[in-house]
Structures are given as structure tokens and as C-alpha cells.
Write a structure and sequence with these properties.
Family (chains A, B): Belongs to the thiamine-monophosphate kinase family.
Number of strands of chain A: 12
EC number (chains A, B): 2.7.4.16
Radius of gyration of chain A: 20 Å
Oligomer: homodimer
Structural class of chain A: alpha+beta
Largest interface: A-B, 63 and 62 residues
Strand content of chain A: 15-25%
Keywords (chains A, B): ATP-binding, Kinase, Magnesium, Metal-binding, Nucleotide-binding, Thiamine biosynthesis, Transferase
Number of domains of chain A: 2
Helix content of chain A: 25-40%
CATH topology of the largest domain in chain A: Phosphoribosyl-aminoimidazole Synthetase, Chain A, domain 2
Strand order of the largest sheet of chain A: 8-10-7-11-9-12
Order of helices and strands of chain A: HHEEEHEHEEEHHHEHEHHEEEH
Catalytic activity (chains A, B): thiamine phosphate + ATP = thiamine diphosphate + ADP
InterPro entries (chains A, B): PurM-like_C_dom, PurM-like_C_sf, PurM-like_N, PurM-like_N_sf, ThiL-like
Distance between the termini of chain A: 43 Å
Largest sheet of chain A: 6 strands, mixed
CATH superfamily of the largest domain in chain A: PurM-like C-terminal domain
CATH class of the largest domain in chain A: Alpha Beta
Shape of chain A: globular
CATH architecture of the largest domain in chain A: Alpha-Beta Complex
């Protein structure tokens, strides 16, 4: 059945029926607005939009995959402030010939990813559009802590990373060359594994700055360096390149560091910490904050790859 | 200059520079998420999306008009819960050949409409897309009051309306027939005048239900009747039809009540109140809540017009 034959209200009812509701939801979907708890009298809020053809392809990702990824991109932004996500709102623009099943499975993915952190889809809007578009807003609870912003890094801090890096970019490259394996990389592109809990954890540990790596590690740490008016030097030896990534890079004639340093979409978290902070296993040190400006790798400007140039 | 030549970060910088920031904003645009105050430990949140060709046309409305309308549609949803809007987040999907000036003027409209209620644009996202799309999320403060939902209307309540009704639908009809006047109607379509303050006012007065009239008065009060398990009877004599609307309807061979009862987009607020409540001038009584189901006009089922059928 197409969404046109289900009708707007029919589709909303079908999709809403599939969504759960968590403890943070005081009033869920179905009224003019939802009401979400904001225990410390502040709410963190972020919006990210995915456009078919630019951010996803229906032949590369299932509807559930796209739902997971749309939710993850937004939930990661909330985690990157040191907050715990509470709610998602979703504006869905869909071609009238789209199958209802696709929209339902998208909702399943959105709801399942939100449930990983105890959040729920609390509202949304639907419209027909020639271009399949998913705009998601995430809300979050800072738990009484100050938000961890981009501008607090200080010379002497260590730079640390939580989560995988380069996997999704490698998966994207593999898919765009017409392959469907290695599964590790392709699945990482389809459904990022975001280190959500590392965000509030970093805030509690006294992180001086934090960012969600969505544009690529060098680009995003470049935002931190610029906002903090410092330089950042990364150690290339700090990054583990898994065998599947190394093999795929070799087969495709690509430097795997192009994926690690230049690729986005894994939604790793990068943060800076005072040097004396004992970091738990979720975080691994990848570099340090220095006097100066901009990013270096092993003390030198990075001129490695098309990946990096492209993402700039 | 096109948005493609400005680049994503250039465009974001230009647009952000035009936005003001109100007292509710604890952390504005530029980080992974914004932080907005939520004084009573709850936040009302709603999302509405406008798609070019379906919700607006660039030859009918200026970019500033579209910004006003996109903001108004969302701010009205917050007001309809009895809340005061605090913040907007905007996902903007734009064709690469769009002029930067259009995006800047859109931001001006969004910011100016938000400023009417003391709210600010606190964040957003941009992507290129073949289809110009504006998804807005509004946040709001309930001020310690219970949200006014759709399900609380009780037989014996009066039904009251705040704001203009039918003006925008009439303006849309006039534009779609190729006319640019009467100015009153065309301007009402381009920039709704939303009775924002009437929302929290109704909550304080003890409104039993409330809704933002966006799909048409009968359709939206139909949602209230259905959620509240009551009937609603409207008095046709309660609606003032301004001379310009009457004249335009006559010239076009249209029943003006099709616009008043079936037209959306003015973002009037409709609410039900206990009969003993003394209503201020912002609210005028247009009917009453009765035992039963569904909507009647002057005690009879309304079969007036294509407008009504169309909006169903």
C-alpha cells in the first residue's frame, strides 16, 4: 500500500502505533505539541536532516537502517554536549508512491535507536514531497552539568576518542564501488554504533571540550581548535586500523588513514581532558592540545589523502 | 551569489549572524546542540515542515514571508498547549542554485516571527536538496500550568475562537486564480497573524481543550470532538465575514463559509471553556460542546462546500 492510499492521518496512526514511550515523556504524540521532562530546568536541543541521494540511498540501506542512522546522528549531538537524550521529533517528507511499509520500518529504526538511550519519538509531522527527507530534532537532559562546548580546550589537555572511526566512511566507499562486503564496514555505514554513554561520562570526568565526529575527525577537531584558539596534534599510531579496513583499503588502493582522519558518519565522540584525568576504557588518547592553531598529525601538517581534501 | 558558492559553513555563518538571541537561550547556535531554559522542568515541543510547491510558492511569497509562516505554524502549536514559545530549530534543505539572499531573508522572517513572542532561533542544519524544504521545531514553556490538550472538552462548555479565520484560505484561492488582491486576504495568506498570547491566557482561564486551527476549523474541532468524545455545534452567525472576503467570494462564485469553516493556515486558536468563564476580548464564542459526536453548524450537519470536502 502506498502512503497516498493510506492518507496522512492513516499513516500517522500506523507509525505512531509502533513507537514506544519512555519515562521522560509527559505527553506523547497526538496533540499540538508533546511535553518532555527537563529535570534541571534546561533542555539541550539539536536538529539534523537526512536527504535521500545525499545522506542515504534506499538501495544501500533498509528503512530501518535509515531510521537508526537518522536518530543516531541527532542523539550523538546531544551526547556530545554531555547530555542524555530524552526525546526525538521527526519531520518526514515522502513521495506519495512510497510504500507504507517503508515509513513503518523507518519508525521502527528511529524508535529502536532512541530506546538505546531511554529516549522516545514524541512528535512529528508528515508531508508529501518529491524528495524523501527526514529532519530529526533531539532533546536532552544535562543532568545539572554545564554543557561541554567546543571552545574549552586548553594547551596541555589530552585529546581522546570514544567509538569507532573511519568504519562508516570505509563502508560508504566499498558500497560506492559496487561491493557489499566487508560486512563490518558496510554495516558500520548502515548503522553507526554511537558511544552514547561516553558523552555524559566525559562531562562528569571534567572534559574541557567535546564534539560529535560527523564531518571527519580532522575537520571536527578543527572546529574545536578554532573555537578554543589552540592547536591540536594527533598521533597516527594511536589509531587501530582493523584488518578488514586495511584489506579493503589495499584492494581499493586507498590510504586507510583517509577514512580514519577524514571520514564522518561513525558519530564517534572526540573530547579534550586535563592531562591528569584518569580516562576509563571508553576513551583512548589520540593526541594533545598545543599552543598554536589548526591540526597536525605526528607534528606535521596532514596532506595525506583525497579523503581529507574532499571533506574539507 | 548561490548557496553552492557560499558553501555550507559560509551560509551558516551568514544566516546565524542575522539571528538575535533572547533571554531563554542559554547556549545559542554553533555547537553540537543548543541549550534552552525550561523553568518548570518541562518543555513543550512540536515540529512542522513546509515543502515548496505544497506549502508555499516562491512566486507568491517572499523569503521573509515564508520564514514568518514557517515560524508561525510551529509557534502556534506551542501556544495551543497554553505554553509560551522559547526557541526554534530549523532544518533547511535547499537547491544549490538558490540565492544566498533568499536564505538570509528566510532567516530574517523566522527570527522576526520568533521575536514577536520572545523566542529565538537557537540551532539548525542545512543540506542541499532538489526540493526546497523547511522543517522547524518549536520549544515552549508551560509556566507551571498543565498542558491544554484536545481531549478535555465537556458537554456544556462554550467553544471560542481567538484570531482570524478563513482569511488565509481566501488569500490562497485569490492567488491561485491569478489575482494579487484584495491585499487583506493575500497578506493573511503570506503572513498569518497568530493570536499567540491567547494560548497561555486560555490556559490561565481554565480552558478545557485547545487546538491550533491549521487544517480548517471543522476538521480541527473534529479532532477535539473525537478526542473528547463529545459533539460540537457551531453558530454560523458568530463569524464575521469582512467585506473584502465577501466581495472576493462573490466575484469568484465561492461560499465564504467554505473559507471560514474549511480553510486552514490562519493559525487561529480554538478552545473550549466552562460556560461560567468570563472571556476577554481576545476570545469570541462560536458554539458549544454537546453530548454526541462530530460537528454540526446551527444544529445541522454541514454540507456547505467543496472547501469543506476538500479539506476533509
Amino acid at each position: 500500500m502506498s502512503v497516498a492510499s493510506a492518507g496522512e492521518f492513516g499513516l500517522i496512526a500506523r507509525v505512531t502505533a509502533r513507537l514506544g514511550s519512555g519515562a521522560t515523556v509527559l505527553l506523547g504524540p497526538g496533540d499540538d505539541a508533546a511535553v518532555v521532562s527537563a529535570p534541571d530546568a534546561r533542555v539541550a536541543a539539536s536538529t539534523d536532516v537526512l536527504v535521500e541521494g545525499r545522506h542515504f540511498r534506499r538501495d544501500w540501506s533498509s528503512a530501518t537502517d535509515v531510521g537508526h542512522r537518522a536518530a543516531a546522528a541527532n542523539l550523538a549531538d546531544i551526547a556530545a554536549m554531555g547530555a542524555v537524550p530524552t526525546a526525538l521529533l521527526v519531520a518526514l517528507c515522502i513521495p506519495t508512491d512510497l510504500e507504507v511499509r517503508w515509513a513503518e520500518e523507518l519508525a521502527d529504526g528511529l524508535g529502536a535507536e532512541a530506546a538505546l538511550v531511554g529516549a522516545s519519538v514524541v512528535g512529528g509531522d508528515m508531508s508529501s514531497s518529491p524528495t524523501l527527507t527526514i529532519a530529526v530534532t533531539a532533546l536532552g537532559d544535562l543532568g545539572g552539568r554545564a554543557p561541554v562546548v567546543r571552545s574549552g580546550a586548553r594547551p596541555g589537555d589530552v585529546v581522546a576518542l570514544a567509538g569507532r572511526i573511519g568504519y562508516a566512511a570505509a563502508g560508504y566507499t566499498v558500497l560506492s564501488r559496487g561491493f557489499r562486503t566487508p560486512k563490518l564496514l558496510v554495516e558500520a555505514y548502515r548503522r553507526p554504533e554511537v558511544p552514547y554513554r561516553a558523552g555524559p561520562q566525559a562531562a562528569r570526568l571534567g572534559a574541557t571540550s567535546m564534539i560529535d565526529v560527523s564531518d571527519g575527525l580532522l575537520a571536527d577537531l578543527g572546529h574545536v581548535a578554532s573555537a578554543s584558539e589552540v592547536g591540536i596534534d594527533l598521533r597516527s599510531g594511536a589509531f587501530e586500523i582493523p584488518a578488514q579496513m586495511r584489506d579493503a583499503a589495499h584492494a581499493l588502493g586507498i590510504d586507510p588513514y583517509a577514512w580514519v582522519l577524514g571520514g564522518g558518519d561513525d558519530h564517534a565522540l572526540a573530547a579534550t581532558f586535563p592531562a591528569q584525568v584518569a580516562l576509563p576504557d571508553d576513551w583512548r588518547v589520540i593526541g594533545r592540545v598545543v599552543d598554536g592553531t589548526g591540526l597536525t598529525v605526528d607534528g606535521k601538517p596532514y596532506k595525506g589523502s583525497a579523503g581529507w581534501d574532499h571533506f574539507r
